[in-house]
């Protein structure tokens, strides 16, 4: 086994890899950008090397600088994490050519699986069932449209070089095809520098089922069962679990065997994931699961597999990279219980899930569950990188127990002033349909209204705030307590008056929360929500979210990539005004109310700072 390891990544995955590396007695080396000088992954490593400015292209994505850092520190091995250079075959080759150990997939396998169209062709040849569609050379818009017509709508246009849910458009009717194609190409060119696409039949009642595979240099390949990642928003995973709900032994056998076959077809070594899409309209069936793509790296959601198998997949990666045989044979692996993971993002679900950036003045993550994170209280969430703050991972004997644990864990998250999706996660994990296992990739979109807290605090939250102000029988204030439960007032009822209406609320069960002073303000943390409050009432967060004056500001630094309206045009509430690209995603900015565009300040193609006026809407006179 090598003695030192450089992790060519940042954030939670760098910290995750260091944890195992330290346990195995390796010397750990971090690389970091100027924006990450004080980042947790830098603090946790034995050594750290500055590799460039904040922009990923000039630091984490600059293979030359990463390699130079490895040489300068005498690192013997390089782990790429996920994202960044993890699926860059040229980088893998350069690492190997420099005489270092590459803790990743063989460059040839990365290449074979790197483009979705080529990967599908390879899988067809290997006898693995693939999602029906067009993946030809001819990229002319008319040809693509004709192919989409032939496949039959709805179809999904996908960037062949795509990843991370980007560069994908669902098209429901022929007349929308060219629009979808254009926007997909634009996103693909910006994100991947390659605007070629393929077209797939859009699978209805789709479930995302993936299989963890592992290979070693001695020709062994095993699978570590499946994960279900159907809980997605805009094709990005939000909650993942293992095993998959409703999985039968026959279907598991079929899908895991197909995954092993796929890995063997490319001579796979190390950790990889074969992703499948299932038509679950009649439950999971072996003849309705198709290969979608292979991710030739460790996956974000690998902890759920670790939980149910009791294995440390990073340790497996390091051992395999060092030339050892796989730590377990197939028959030594078994599923124990149920695991779920939720991705805690710095984003504001109440404002269309826009990323939220800033300093984490308060960051308390739940105890008693596994938390993988790359930040601590006081750290900064910047606009340069992925907005994931942490992953919450739970493990329980049954799926139901795991869901309860996950909902509780998400509900205990306390973050301020950065906004998070914690309350959204807590609600999703407690949702009746979710708990019953009725999941598909449309689950979040269908239920979004109930899953997203309003911009005004609910009655229950207001009651909790009122309860926090009620003097305690012993003369102290509830706010003195680290956590309060508002079940002490007489009869367990809390009376509050909201907008002249009196409410009496049964407090015992629902009103658990905590009040903390953050940056001089009292914040009520409850069910994953965070509300600043003053005497007697909870304030609505950010006045701008509630009472818009019609000025649409850029919520973060980004680039205006398309404008959908003209000056003077009439718009209706919710209508898309423009598209902003920030944090590697496109974000639609919508009209706050019905009215007219009186000021169109945004210019397509321009970079904007945070807080810049993009559009001003004047309301219709009543
Ligand atoms: P990425 O490389 O961005 O991960 P994938 O091809 O893995 O792209 O697809 C991401 C997600 O998009 C899937 O998890 C699934 O939710 C959805 N998806 C992909 N292909 C299809 C399809 N043919 N029909 C329906 N949904 C799909
Ligand atoms: P998974 O299937 O594991 O969710 P994704 O395709 O969503 O994989 O991407 C994995 C992670 O890689 C993302 O969560 C993100 O942090 C990171 N990532 C994806 N694309 C990029 C990119 N272009 N640059 C940096 N990081 C990226
Ligand atoms: Mg994928």
What features would you highlight for this structure?
single chain, about 625 residues, alpha+beta, Rossmann fold, Dna Ligase, domain 1, D-amino Acid Aminotransferase, Chain A, domain 1, 5 domains, five-stranded parallel β-sheet, 17 helices, binds adenosine-5'-diphosphate, binds magnesium ion, EC 6.4.1.4, methylcrotonoyl-CoA carboxylase activity
What does the secondary structure layout of this molecule look like, with pairings?
Elements: E1 4-7, H1 11-23, E2 27-33, H2 40-44, E3 47-52, H3 63-73, E4 77-79, H4 89-97, E5 101-102, H5 107-114, H6 116-125, E6 133-134, H7 141-151, E7 155-159, E8 168-171, H8 177-192, E9 197-201, E10 206-215, E11 221-233, E12 236-242, H9 249-265, E13 270-279, E14 289-295, H10 302-309, H11 313-321, E15 338-345, E16 347-348, E17 354-355, E18 358-359, E19 362-364, E20 370-373, E21 380-381, E22 388-396, H12 399-411, E23 414-416, H13 422-430, H14 432-435, H15 443-451, H16 459-469, E24 484-485, E25 493-498, E26 501-506, E27 512-518, E28 521-526, E29 529-534, E30 537-538, H17 543-546, E31 551-553, E32 558-563, E33 570-571, E34 576-582, E35 585-590, E36 595-600, E37 607-608, E38 613-619
Parallel strand pairs: 1-2, 1-4, 2-3, 4-5
Antiparallel strand pairs: 6-9, 7-8, 7-9, 10-11, 10-13, 11-12, 12-15, 13-14, 15-22, 16-17, 18-21, 19-23, 20-22, 24-27, 25-26, 27-28, 28-29, 29-30, 31-38, 32-34, 32-37, 33-36, 34-35, 36-38
